[in-house]
Design goal:
The protein is mainly alpha-helical. The protein has six helices and no strands. Helix 1 runs antiparallel to helix 2, helix 1 packs antiparallel against helix 4 and helix 2 packs antiparallel against helix 6.
Length: 159
């Protein structure tokens, strides 16, 4: 029988979001070491797709639940503004190729933006710590995140 608890499940909201963070960090590290254009393009595409899905599920599901549970508007607003900056850069990268002058620089800046954002979410006293202390049902929110993530990934594979 599955645990009905709010914390600790591999499908809880914070575990899922942190797993996304680790995956994108690994792809950024691979990008840094990549030497040929096709590998850079492949990695940049994976990074942009993963971040697009991640920001969407956070904004649609996790952030509203966080705001409702904590009423921490400052943290919420900062995260939304950081997402807006990342989404702008993602769109630019998706319209480029590794041969373009600023391609590597834009992926590097995106990496730095994401590292900052992840640090803000995961630090003691950050959004994830506050969510854990709140009454947010992390298991239920995690299930919603996972379902929406799968839906968005399936949609992007069809497109």
């Amino acid at each position: 029988m599955a645990s009905a608890g709010r914390k600790g499940s591999s499908h809880d909201a914070i575990s899922l979001l942190k797993a996304d963070h680790r995956q994108v960090e690994a792809w950024f590290a691979e990008f840094d070491g990549a030497r040929n254009s096709s590998r850079k393009q492949q990695l940049a595409s994976k990074i942009c797709e993963a971040l697009s899905v991640h920001t969407m599920i956070e904004e649609e599901i996790f952030y509203p639940a966080f705001l409702q549970s904590t009423e921490d508007k400052d943290t919420h607003h900062e995260a939304i503004v950081e997402h807006a900056g990342a989404k702008k850069l993602i769109a630019e990268i998706q319209g480029m190729s590794p041969e373009d002058d600023y391609f590597d620089a834009k992926v590097t800046v995106l990496s730095e933006m994401i590292k900052h954002h992840v640090k803000e979410e995961e630090k003691p006293g950050g959004m994830f710590a506050e969510a854990k202390k709140s009454e947010m049902d992390l298991s239920a929110v995690g299930e919603q995140l996972l379902a929406r993530k799968r839906e968005l990934q399936a949609r992007s594979r069809v497109a």
